[in-house]
Amino acid sequence: MMKRILETFRRFRRGFREGPSWFPVPGSRKNRRTPFPILLLLWGYALLDRVLTPQGRMFLAIYLAIACYSLILSRSPAVLLFFVLSGVLFFDIAAGLLFRPRIRFRRMVPERVARGAVFRIRYTVENHSHLPCFDLIADASLMMRHLAGTDPALPRLSLGGGETGTVTREFRLQKRGIHLLPRALMETGFPFQIFKLSCASGSRQKIICHPEWIPLRSLRLPEGNAGSSESVSSAASVGGSMDFYGCREYRTGDDPRKIHWVASAKHAQFVVKEFQEEKLSRAALILDNSLAAERFSFRTLFRNLFQLKVGTGGYDDAPFEAAVSLCASLAASLSSGDFVVDLFAAGSEIHRFRTGGRYMTQEAFLDLLAALEPSGKRDRFGKITPEDIRTIASSGAVFLLLLRVDPESSKLYRALVETGVPVRAFLIGASSGPGWVEPLRTGDILGGREMDL
Predict the structure, then answer these.
(1) What is the DSSP letter of 258?
(2) Strand (E) or helix (H) holding 449
(3) Which of 198, 269, 360, 396 suits a disulfide with 280, CB 3.0-4.6 Å?
(4) Position with higher pLDDT, 137 vs 259
């Protein structure tokens, strides 16, 4: 018995910490829980929002004030107003309970959307009652930090007994990432829009928001590449002679017929032969995965504090978002030219993805970019080992995407150049930089215009 009570208490505590399932809960920072007072206020507001409409809260405040005034002055004309308002409340509750919705509904959410693009969520509603239900609204409180509805007015649905209908709403996501939606909620404020009767359905759903990216009109390969003077689409045909280039370690997906058995026996691991055509048909992207690259000025910090924008942490994430979008554009352009692309996201950890050819599809690659979180550490290239440098140098071209230039990034650039691999370095969010980097403005990348690189 005691074990059952403890298990019930743990479930209740876990549910309380997760917040109301039907209400958008602000995301907590990693490894940090939302403070108890904030959770308590959140639960109180969510329950109030589920029972009362905004105009209902105003009505109730006025009603309580008039009720208190009538108790103090019993012969005041306010007593008559009190009885009139009491009659309105009684009729609203009685009619609402009589026509309360007995429905089943399902919310259909797209799995993937693009940042900034308008998408639709469709609701299928079935009335299981013999009585009609009026003024049904779908997800009226679905307004998250980066999710906004674009409907000019909330669509309302009325169904007769046993009828089925659909409601469609339009939304827009302004932040790349994986967003967890609250449970679907269908509610009605019939007849006077004071009290709400609602019904929740299903479980929380996820939406993957891909980074906003635009295909490149043209892409110049780094100087020193055999195809640097050609377009990406024609560069992949360079090296058709299949001249032997060297050996490298075996990777998943490699042709077993290219295994070099003598070298494999010598190194106690599989080694494959690499040809000149394969080298020229592979490219590497190195992403500076560090949010600490762009600090706000004191003036910007003061302005954010005055505007109550306290959740930014003192950093501007626009250059990082632009760098992720540029990664998607580069990978798409290179993959369309039959390149195999390796992405190295260097931060507190080294994340490595491969797309193009028979490897990861573009959609799966964008899914990984959507889930990529920036690192707050400044030594983001410290975990790139000499073995990683050799692996990157085995590509035919390297694109280095930097958020700032410092001794660490300069050291990485020199290490790559010393291997002989052709390198192009971009500095995101800047108008100028050293001679070996090409500065790119954030607005040029996220502005929705095609670019030439």
Answers:
(1) G
(2) none
(3) 396
(4) 137
Fill in the amino acid letter for 413.
Y
Select from 316, 279, 284, 285 the least CA-distant residue to 300. 316
Q: Is residue 223 part of a domain?
A: no
Cβ distance 280 to 364 under 8 Å? no
- pLDDT tens across 176-227, in order? 999 989 999 999 999 999 999 998 888 889 999 999 888 888 888 887 654 4
**Cα–Cα distance between 183 and 129 in angstroms, integer?**
23
Q: What is the pLDDT of residue 29?
A: 47
Of the candidates 31, 50, 28, the one whose C-alpha atom is nearest the C-alpha of residue 39 is 28
β-strand 133-138 against 184-188: which pairing, if any? antiparallel
The residue type found at 208 is I
Q: What is the pLDDT of residues 142-160, one digit of tens each?
A: 877 788 889 888 899 999 9
Residue 47's SS3 state is: helix
Domain span including residue 415: 232-236+281-446
Q: Indicate whether 271 and 285 sit together in one domain.
A: no
CA pair distance 87, 346, nearest whole angstrom: 66
**Tokens describing residue 22:** 């039907």
Which tokens go with 174? Answer: 């302004």
Spatial contact of 176 and 155, defined as CB atoms under 8 Å apart: no
Q: For residue 268, how many other CB atoms are within 10 A of its CB?
A: 7
Whole-number Å distance between alpha carbons of 238 and 1: 75
Q: How many domains does the chain have?
A: 3
Q: What mean pLDDT is predicted for residues 244-272?
A: 73
User: Which of 73-82, 172-181, 263-272, 387-396 bottoms out in mean pLDDT, i.e. has the lowest?
Assistant: 263-272
CA–CA separation, 410 vs 278, rounded Å?
28
**Mean pLDDT, to the nearest integer, of 160-169?**
93
Sheet arrangement for strand 197-201? 156-159, 133-138, 184-188, 197-201
Whole-number mean pLDDT of the chain? 81
* Residue 141's pLDDT band (cuts 50, 70, 90): confident
Is residue 333 located within the same domain as residue 415? yes
Residue 4 lies in a domain: no
DSSP letters along 217-240, please? SB-PPPTTSTTTTS-HHHHTTTTT
Is 69 part of any domain?
A: no
- Tell me how far apart the alpha carbons of residues 288 and 374 are, in angstroms, rounded to a whole number: 9
Residue 18 and residue 118 in one domain: yes
Buried b (16+ CB within 10 A) or exposed e, 379-390: ebbeebeeebbe
Q: Is the dihedral of CA 259, 341, 111, 217 positive or negative?
A: negative
For 288-299, the pLDDT digits (tens) are 887 654 454 556
| Cα(392)–Cα(394) distance, integer angstroms | 5
